[in-house]
Hints:
Mean pLDDT: 83
Order of helices and strands: HEHHEHH
Organism: Linum tenue
CATH architecture of the largest domain: 2-Layer Sandwich
Low-confidence stretches: none
GO molecular function, one term: RNA-DNA hybrid ribonuclease activity
Radius of gyration: 16 Å
Helix content: 40-55%
CATH class of the largest domain: Alpha Beta
CATH topology of the largest domain: Nucleotidyltransferase, domain 5
Protein name: RNase H type-1 domain-containing protein
Shape: globular
Pfam families: RVT_3
InterPro entries: RNase_H-like, RNase_H-like_dom_plant, RNaseH-like_sf, RNaseH_domain, RNaseH_sf
Number of helices: 5
Amino acid sequence: MKLGICSVTRAELRAVVEGLQLAWDLGFRWVKVQLDSKCALQILQCPHREDNRHSAVVARFQALIGRNWEVFVSHVYRESNKCADYLASRGHHLPLGFSSFPVDDPTLVYWILYDRQGLSEPRLVLNEG
């Protein structure tokens, strides 16, 4: 879903909510959500913060996960989810709104298999202390 101009955090939160709604509508009742944004994850895990500018999206998330299904949300490093990166990069060239991709897209299939094998690129972490 292309949102237009918004923060990265807002985009992550909307992606989670829209993805969960789509999963529910398609009949999935066991869903694993992996976020590469610790900030977005913290916002979802602390829905009652007073300074939450994302309260409407968080309320939708809470309503969705309160349904009769299993939803697991966790943090992953960006490098371990190449499929999501590929879809996000394709989304930059799409019109605003919802878009779907064919499941037989060879590049998408490649990244799904790559992620499934648990492969990832090295990550450089600098100690600022």
